[in-house]
Design a protein that fits this description.
mainly beta, 7-stranded mixed β-sheet, 4-stranded antiparallel β-sheet, about 50% strand, globular
Length: about 120
């Protein structure tokens, strides 16, 4: 199994920044990672993904240019730097791990492990 723990969420004004962290541990973890978010009454939405070694990334159109995903494999940690936050970014943000050790994906069904989430609230 893979265990994921998110941190770094909070309340911020529009235009501000936050950095989310996801600490990963487990018996055989070594693959791609992603961030998803879910607002009340809405479906879970893809945000960003990164491959195993951090050489490739993928972003949703809604966050491209504002968010940056990165990882530090020595610390088994994935980050999501969020800049120029907007009220529509308000959601619970989840870290997830792919079931394969390679590749990128925007599809939640391909992620087999999920964290508990961390709340991000952006006020106007």
């Amino acid at each position: 199994q893979v265990q994921l723990v998110e941190s770094g969420g909070g309340l911020v004004q529009a235009g501000g920044s936050l950095r989310l962290s996801c600490a990963a541990s487990g018996r055989t973890f070594s693959g791609g990672m992603g961030w998803f978010r879910q607002a009340p009454g809405k479906e879970r939405e893809f945000v960003a993904a990164i491959n195993r070694i951090g050489s490739s990334t993928l972003y949703s159109d809604s966050v491209n240019g504002r968010f940056t995903i990165s990882r530090d494999n020595a610390k088994n940690t994935v980050y999501l730097q969020m800049n120029n936050l907007k009220p529509e970014d308000t959601a619970r943000y989840y870290c997830a791990a792919l079931t394969t050790p390679w590749g990128l994906s925007r599809y939640s069904d391909e992620y087999g492990y999920w964290g508990q989430g961390t709340q991000v609230t952006v006020s106007s």
